[in-house]
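Sample A.
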Amino acid sequence: MEFIQKKRGVKQTFTLRDDHFNFAYEDKSGSGDIDLNYVDFPQKSSVSIEQNEWLRNVGLLWIALGVAQIGWAIFNDLSLSGKGFWLMVGMACVLWAHFSKTRYSVFRTERGNVLVMQNKQHQQIVETLHARRKAQLLDWYGDVNPDNELENEIRKFQWLVEQDVMTQAESEQKIAQAQLLHNSQYESTETKLN
């Protein structure tokens, strides 16, 4: 499965495989990619806004120049003909800078940041990655491991609840299975010793 997001000079590709995914990006400053297991995709994100600061600042400067020019003309009782040019150009630049903003959800990982453009595909990409993360966590840690200490198993299932992978009831059921398994192992070891 693959998702591709494009806006102006930016292209991002999410290639989803069975056990991991690849996030590749390309923009004016360069390109790169990272491979991540689904379990490494964080639940929480921050927001980053990319915009043309230079265009906005120049637009604001031209608006100020246009307002000053019109104010000077009114104050000195001069003709206003042609005095609104810089005001209009400045407003056009500010509007262009505003509507050309790109918002990203930023998921920070140890290997790098995964950026998801906030467009019509955003929700589908994030939900798919979270669903695969949950499935991989359950696959890796969802069963009782008889070789682990009981305390470690209890902490593991409590952690899975914190990660929104299991409900509290499912966790308690797994903890009860681990306690039963450890009690039966303890009794069989005690019987062998006697």
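Sample B, a different protein:
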Amino acid sequence: MQAKVTATPAALELVAEIVAEHGPVLFHQSGGCCDGSSPMCYPRDGFIVSEQDVLLGYIAEMPFYIGAPQFEAWKHTDLIIDVVPGRGGMFSLDNGREKGFLTRSTICTVRM
């Protein structure tokens, strides 16, 4: 499967900062209501990936997953992970840094 997630230079810089502090991480984009379009960043051993999660690709060699129902809704969309001023997701490792990850998107061309 072709990677469906990329990151801006600002996001890659924040990932490097977090990995330097916490070690390997993973990202999860869920369809939950709490953090909207914020991908959540967790210690790699602090989040259990389920059989219902879909691996979209890697950001700075860190895996990026999405819940299966959300993947179905977004399967023709490429995600671009960026950084914006503000707080990260409540349980995400970007929280408390005065900047946080944000998911942007582009719609892919669908050929039938």
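Observation for Sample B: The chain has two helices and seven strands.
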